[in-house]
Amino acid sequence: MARRKIIAGNWKMNMTPSQAVALCAELKDLVKSDSVDVVYCVPAIDIVPVVEAVKGTNVQVGAENLYIEDKGAYTGEISAPMLVDSGVKFVIIGHSERREYFKEDDAFLNKKVKKAFEAGLIPILCCGETLEQREMGVTMDWIRLQIKSDLVGITADQVKSMVIAYEPIWAIGTGKTATTEQAEEVCKGIRECIAEIYDQATADAVRIQYGGSVNAGNAAELFAQPDIDGGLVGGASLKADFGKIVNY
Ligand code: PEP
Per CATH, which fold does 5-246 belong to? Predict the structure, then answer.
């Protein structure tokens, strides 16, 4: 069965609530599509207005983070039940910015993946190597370690429903995209890793995105690769270009 492409925007820490609503209005007609899933992953404070703004459209809403507990004395955190109750369907877990700036390690991210599934959210699990790791030739070893650690205790059926985003750190926000061959090679490697941990049916079902300076000019070639099932898009998701990426 062919995998349905999924194009997700990662707004990061951009867009005040009123700017978010204005962006939804600007993109509304541009991101219309019957053939791909479209997701806006937005800052927590934008979730409620964005869910309202995209009502009746093909756009689904994702969060950029969640906490591992359902409630309690965790000042400043947002729980999975809060996200679900607000209309969120997806959640980004393990973005390299969270791994780097907030020191989130794989054991913690594994708890987040479990919590997302427990609440009924679909994780978009990010992985990716640094430029140094790529130059040392350990890209696939590193990514296999991330995937294996982050998926401890996750069932095959859960993996079939989730999304994995391959995002080489050196390509994020740098304007430097991985070549189509580099992106496909790693996405294929991730699928092989899933087949080893689980089975071929699970590997065939999981959707694997590429992320890292995706834009209107390179999306079509990247998304045409057999193991790339769409993209996680940062900078270009905040402008009209996102419509061109969705309709690549
Ligand atoms: C991202 O933040 O996940 C990302 C890929 O950013 P950009 O598209 O700006 O490189």
Answer: TIM Barrel (3.20.20)
